[in-house]
């Protein structure tokens, strides 16, 4: 054996993750760039849960999917529940009860909601403001002094509904929660911990700034704001109570980096996995797999997955039961349990990629790196794996085998150093139903920030991984 042969032998024994840009064929590199283009449009169009559902349904209808219940001949079906969660399926040739292949992602993202009674006139500043209540794990200081758009949905007392979107179109006004100037921040902010420096009580939004010309009304700014809202949306103050109004970053998603090899944008946790999952499903429409392919988008993951649209709700079980009925199979409790027990699920959620500014929070050998493909996490959770799913070794090996067979770039990584912090996904909720489940998603930098960063190599590899998985046996 000469030196070269020894080196080759050694390489075969080592596990080494591969860099997509270095090792992918030129055609695939081109695909990674073209795949990212419509993704930007998706991020800009789907900034709330309801908007993501609307975007998804439009895409499904264009691909001839049918809402359940539907005629048995239709092999492409979906269900939307309370406008906040959706599941879609392409029926396979085997019975559904033989087990489904599912990619499950969540479509809610951290944000700042308006309170139910939000509007007030602030006499000290001479402005009309909105009180807010943040949703999910945000760093509050990031949401001040940044342009925000107001998105949402109002149900008026007569039952009529109104969709709201202000601040996305060119020329539309945006909103600001002003931060305190550094000149006067010494006591209010600089003496405090980072988490307390901007308090939730100080996250009031400047909603409007003028009163109706010539008006002598008391609280004339608030009155004028209400008058504009009445003209624009036909609402009165009480209608805020039955509204879901959300502030999201107004800045659109963009290519990032000199080489444009990355995407920066809001809400990629976890709409990057939702987007890649549905694109993977649609890319498999002619694949005719044996197993039924399912993509599931859940809500409320950022606040614990509870509620009637969270992953803990009965919806996903009910959807699979409706698939059984649709396919002429028994939807009995026993058959539904059997279906889940026979099923394989990728919990599609993002993970934390090593950040050049904070490498110390990761243990690099077991962390996800940009450009090295879809990130597999055998377990999430925190501390001694509390709250984790912990995929079985058998299923982990199977997923790696599928990815290797399809030449998908993949890597294994945990979310941060042991005892550094931690985080959960919906993996354990799905696993509680008896299915084989593993976390599998994209590594982000700046997760939960207003502008999360991903690599186009990893975006594409996530899609390629889901695509290979959905058709596997
Ligand atoms: Mn997530
Ligand atoms: Mn999250």
Tell me how many strands there are: 22
Strand content: 15-25%
Average predicted confidence as pLDDT = 96
What is the total number of structural domains? 2
Overall geometric form: globular
Low-confidence stretches: none
Can you count the helices?
13
| Spatial arrangement of strands, main beta sheet | 1-2-3-13-4-14-20-16-18
Estimated radius of gyration: 24 Å
CATH topology call of the largest domain: Aminopeptidase
For the biggest sheet, the summary is: 9 strands, mixed
Bound molecules: manganese (II) ion
- Structural class based on helices, strands and sheet pairing: alpha/beta
Distance between the termini: 40 Å
CATH superfamily of the largest domain: Zn peptidases
Percent range of helical residues = 25-40%
At CATH level 2, the architecture of the largest domain is: 3-Layer(aba) Sandwich
- CATH class of the largest domain equals Alpha Beta
